[in-house]
Amino acid sequence: MVRKRKFTLSTTQIILLSFLVTILIGSVLLALPISSADGKAIPYVDALFTATTSTCVTGLVTVPTFSTWSIFGQIVILILIQIGGIGVIAIMSGFMLLLNRKMGLGNRLLIQDAFNLNTLSGLAKFVKNILLGTLTVEGVGALLYMLVFVPAFGARGIWISVFNSVSAFCNAGIDIIGESSLCAYATNPLVNIVTASLIILGGIGYIVWWDVFRVIKSRTPRNRRVFRHLTLHSKIAIVSTLCLIFGGALLIFVFEYNNPQTIGDMNLFDKLQVSLFQSITTRTAGFATVPQENLTGASTVVSLVLMFIGGSPVGTAGGVKTVTIVVLLCSALATIRNKTGATIFQRRISGGSIRKAVAVVATFSAVMLTSIILLAAVTDAPVIDIVYESVSATATVGLSKNLTASLSALGKCIIIVTMYFGRVGPISLAVALGSKKENQNVISEPTEDISIG
User: Is residue 442 part of a domain?
Assistant: First the structure.
């Protein structure tokens, strides 16, 4: 008697399908008349686009969020943003823990792969910390936002504050204030500080949070040198994040200093805070305090680089990630110096980490370039606007040079697919690389040197 082979999904397939199912369910809900502000169902392609940009925490929108969707529709969008930011697997595991159900080995493996962790121990506590930490930070952010939005919008300001806080922490960049994002609050210090803080905390990565807390708790009054005792991952994530934020802000400040369409007519303090915010938001957040189409060419290029890099691993941000870029730079520098291995902070980077970094960048670049070519083929727009749109979609940023709303149905579909693969591609690739080990007993092919460069 022949036994039927049991069909099982791999971890990669489960992660891919979890995002896809979430998007499809969200699109169906948003296509209902109850989700529309005027009670009339919007075209399904726009509902699908909105569900995708929410779940993939991108922020590109084809219709104004604040005026198109009813309260029900906005709640659906907010739930999709929260699910996409934390991760479907983490939220499902969190519900299991709330029901006092133990996490089986399969669920532990899913959590480990979804967050690219190196151990199976302490995963239940890790999930609890993620959910509790997320809700705490978003709650504090919402309360601070209320100081500005409640006086301006009344009772509706409470909902705006909650929505913006979740969207900022999840690096989604979707808001329900107006059509011009946060441009009306470009020079408001409180809105800038709260939004920037939420973006950075979400994008730095959860494992950096717990590493910093661990070191602070273990330090004695005589030894408070926290940075020295952090893991290599945390050191790279923190230093690279600070360099990108302040380096990007300096370049944008210089390039936009005399541009009257952005910060040219502002005082020095406002120029500094707008430049800093632009540098932070381009790292996959998507909120805008200046119209992106008014940026100079040099600032546009700087923004493209920041969008491409994105945030740090195991967080809510997209892009190829800061740690990935640092690993590649260290590897390149070691090759240039003719060293046998790449090092940073007096630690040697493993060959496996370097190979993963190369694979992630190659995959990300392939998705991005394919999107640019396809979008250029179906869209009659300046090339720089198309590049900006595609990079923003791939890196799940959400900034646009006013192109998204004018896309054709085919153009919208291209961006939908781009956002999906931009969000799940690096995660799935990391899972695949981490789960498949080459059999060391297999006879390998002969080695031969080839010319490079």
Answer: no
